[in-house]
Design a protein that fits this description.
- There is one protein chain.
- Helix content is 51%, strand content 14%.
- It is built from 26 helices and 24 strands.
- The strands form 5 sheets. Strands 5, 6, 7, 8, 9, 10 and 11 form a 7-stranded mixed β-sheet that branches.
- A hairpin with an 8-residue loop joins strand 2 and strand 3.
- The longest helix has 44 residues.
- It is globular and about 100 Å long.
- About 3% of the residues have low confidence.
């Protein structure tokens, strides 16, 4: 034990007074640890941490199909299926779901609004969650549609209400609803919603009666359920298959479009839409950590070769090979500990910056730098790095003898450690190509996403959902003429508001979903949209006409049989013809023959998304089903002006009576849609840069060592007539050939990956050019990093070198 303590002190002293090589090793490992801690802090709760529920192994997630819509990441199924699942009490103790949308409401005037999301009243019972304060929801809590009982998160309770029990007496009015706090959720509560809300401040009990009125039509989000004791997931899957078969038969759905219900463990199921994305991040940072460890091994091997004289002295004084092994391993452990500590401190310093650039869906799941699991993981990184990186130099030192070192010095060879160094350099180059390819495949599509036009002007554009003007109760269906009058009256009110440049409306949100109420595009075998729009729609949206004209006021007032189509729609309906050729053509839309009067440029519902064929008709047309819910309205404001929601609501209330109003910036609405590609591009770009930096450090260190070790040999060769270039080539062969072999292997591996897993690539990409350029780039960086130290060869004076020897 005393000998071990002595060795530890020697290792620490050796590292603290070490050369720049030790500093490079610490920085290398710190970078590898920092990127891993950053990503682990974001995904630990979703992928690796046990769910904070009672007996989580009995909880399952049941979904039908997944929408790959970043803004509405949910899995859906017909409500009749959820009802049928809940009725199978022989398999499930309870079935529930969280709707996934967020209601923002200010509990205290002047304070920041609370973000509350609806759940079924039995959700906490199914999850086995007991409130930390107050009570849970009761079966009658959601029966009154105007009362919304609320359970706040523990974090919101502490932040906004300072942990006071008086929060249980808090209630407030928001529109037609009364919110009242009945309890506080336990710390670390995680809502198993397919939407992956991220940050939310609480939940409220909710019952959507429209689902009960039309159980076969409306869709509910994927439910979660608790299995009865002794029931396996396989048995639940059999029941789910039976339920989906009966449901499709009841709805007369054609066989090709039927899909089976899928039962998965809850942790896998509710992250199913983002799980590949999270594993991609994990694989990327693990690869960089592997590069850092390999790089550290190269540096430690090189450092061991620098200190060969020290090994000779220790062996001559009686040290055993085992003790040299122990000291080498302790030195690696000290370096990895210092590197892990530096990486963790780096993460603490960058934590707030990281949270500004990560997708909002992940922000709510991030843990702080002082989280115990994160600290344990950081210590684990240090241990793994010490073992993986330290084993090679430690083994090399164990096989060391005085005769071997002296022979190596006299022969100018590097022995076994030199061969290991070459192998490790090749592995590092191979991993480096993999990481750089990731950046090459994500950064160009993101740049293209930013520079491509969405087909409209989102700046100073605001989307409103107006709940005013609904007649005969919320469940009544107005006629088409009522739709037109309502839109005209709402727009008359909003257009005179301060700062409004123009306003328009449509019966379906033009920025969300496929709306084809007439079945026109479906009849043509296409997925498209038919929008019933009010006056000034194209002007307000900021979309240009490419042929023809917009609707006239007279056509809108008379709901004339006219239509405007987008460029994609015109191209699909009349292939090979110019957009202007569509003007005057007649189309059968529903029950009406419509004449095309204009063609407008394509609009994308989200950045980078494919363009849907779109047909616009006047609002109030007989072939478009009437609207019974909120009216989507677009407001274009003067530059720098924002609509005042309170003022607009007051104006609408005076005209129509009390109603609801939601106002959202279109720029802010589109922002979440670019968060994921931006984060991927930024992260993989940083990881690629870190990888190249690590390669530069390793190659520079190894080549510098070879230059110093071969100084006498180079002097002799130059004295005998060899050129400096030939001497340089001899040094470069030690480092460049392993890198070239590694780059070739990385190129082949990347080609195999993109051919076998095309889903890794953006749509329309082949990936081969990106892979080739990445491999060339890594090889070029390796050549430069190795070539720079060899410039010292040009300054070698043979006479001086030989005189010194």
């Amino acid at each position: 034990m005393r000998e071990l303590g002595t060795d530890a002190r020697h290792a620490l002293r050796s590292v603290t007074r070490g050369r720049g090589l030790v500093v490079a090793a610490v920085v290398t490992f710190a970078l590898g640890v920092a990127v891993n801690v950053v990503v682990l802090s974001l995904i630990d709760r979703l992928l690796f941490r046990p769910l904070p529920f009672a007996e989580p192994d009995r909880l399952v997630h049941i979904h039908l199909f997944a929408r790959s819509d970043v803004g509405l990441a949910q899995a859906f199924m017909p409500f009749v299926m959820s009802q049928a699942l809940a009725a199978r009490t022989d398999v499930f103790e309870g079935v529930s779901w969280a709707d996934g949308w967020v209601a923002e409401t200010a509990a205290i005037p002047g304070e920041s609004p609370l973000r509350l999301t609806p759940v079924r009243a039995n959700a906490l019972d199914v999850l086995g969650v007991v409130p930390a304060l107050g009570r849970s929801f009761s079966p009658v809590d959601a029966d009154d549609g105007r009362q919304r009982p609320v359970l706040l998160t523990a974090e919101t309770w502490q932040r906004a209400f300072r942990g006071s029990d008086s929060v249980l007496h808090l209630s407030w009015q928001a529109g037609p609803f009364t919110y009242r706090v009945v309890g506080v959720l336990p710390p670390g509560f995680l809502l198993p919603s397919s939407h992956l809300l991220g940050r939310f401040d609480g939940v409220f009990a909710y019952r959507d009666r429209r689902l009960e009125m039309f159980p076969r039509g409306p869709l509910t989000v994927a439910p979660f359920a608790r299995l009865r004791r002794g029931v396996s997931i396989q048995a639940a899957q059999v029941v789910a298959n039976q339920v989906s078969t009966m449901a499709w038969e009841a709805t007369d759905t054609p066989t090709p479009t039927r899909q089976r219900l899928t039962v998965l463990p809850l942790q896998t199921g509710f992250t199913i839409l983002v799980r590949p994305y999270l594993w991609l991040l994990t694989a990327a940072v693990w690869t960089v950590f592997a590069v850092a460890v390999v790089n550290l091994a190269v540096l430690l091997l090189t450092w061991g070769r620098w200190r060969a004289d020290d090994a000779v002295v220790r062996l001559a004084l009686g040290a055993s090979p085992s003790r040299l092994f122990r000291m080498a391993f302790l030195e690696a452990s000290v370096i990895c500990t210092l590197g892990a500590l530096a990486g963790w401190v780096t993460y603490l310093g960058l934590q707030s910056t990281v949270l500004h650039v990560v997708p909002s869906v992940l922000k709510g799941f991030a843990v702080g730098g002082w989280d115990p699991r994160l600290l344990v993981a950081t210590a684990g990184f240090a241990c793994c790095g010490a073992v993986a990186a330290g084993i090679f130099p430690a083994l090399a030192s164990r096989r060391t003898s005085v005769v071997q070192i002296l022979n190596a010095r006299s022969a100018g060879g590097g022995g076994t450690s030199s061969a290991v160094t070459r192998i490790v350099l090749a592995v590092e180059a191979m991993l480096g190509v993999a990481v750089v390819v990731g950046g090459a495949l994500t950064i160009p599509p993101f740049v293209s996403l930013l520079v491509s036009s969405p087909g409209f002007a989102p700046q100073n554009l605001f989307a409103l959902d107006v709940g005013h003007g609904i007649v005969n109760g919320s469940d009544a269906l107005p006629d088409a003429d009522t739709d037109r009058r309502r839109a005209v009256e709402v727009l008359d009110v909003l257009r005179v508001a301060p700062g409004v440049v123009s306003a328009s409306a449509s019966l379906a949100d033009p920025l969300e979903g496929q709306a084809d109420p007439t079945g026109f595009w479906k009849d043509h075998g296409l997925d498209g949209r038919v929008l019933a729009v009010a006056s000034d729609f194209l002007h307000t949206f900021g979309t240009k006409l490419v042929a023809g004209r917009d609707f006239t006021v007279a056509e809108l007032d008379a709901t004339a049989p006219v239509a405007v189509v987008n460029e994609t729609g015109a191209r699909l309906l009349w292939p090979g013809e110019a957009p202007s050729a569509a003007i005057g053509r007649v189309l059968r839309v529903g029950i009406v023959n419509r004449t095309i009067v204009g063609v407008h440029e394509d609009m994308r519902q989200e950045p980078g998304a494919p363009v849907s064929p779109t047909l616009q008709v006047p609002i109030g047309s007989r072939d478009v089903p009437p609207q019974q819910s909120g009216l989507p309205v677009l407001l274009r404001m003067e530059p720098g002006r924002r609509p005042d929601p309170a003022y607009l609501k007051a104006m609408l209330d005076r005209r129509f009576g009390p109603g609801s109003l939601q106002v959202e910036s279109v720029d802010a609405r589109l922002e979440p849609l670019v968060e994921r590609p931006r984060f991927l591009a930024a992260l993989l770009g940083v990881l690629g840069g870190v990888t190249l930096f690590l390669m530069v450090v390793a190659l520079h260190a190894v080549t510098s060592f070879e230059v110093a070790r071969r100084r006498r040999e180079a002097g002799i060769r130059i004295a005998l007539g060899a050129t400096t270039t030939a001497v340089r080539r001899g040094v470069l062969a030690v480092t460049v050939w392993p890198v070239a072999v590694g780059v070739t292997a990385g190129f082949g591996l990347a080609c195999w990956a993109v051919l076998e897993m095309p889903r890794l690539l953006p749509a329309g990409k082949t990936g081969l050019w990106e892979i080739a350029l990445s491999a060339i780039g890594v090889l070029g960086v390796g050549l430069v990093a190795a070539w720079v130290p060899t410039r010292l060869m040009a300054r070698i004076n043979p006479a001086v070198t030989l005189r010194v020897d």
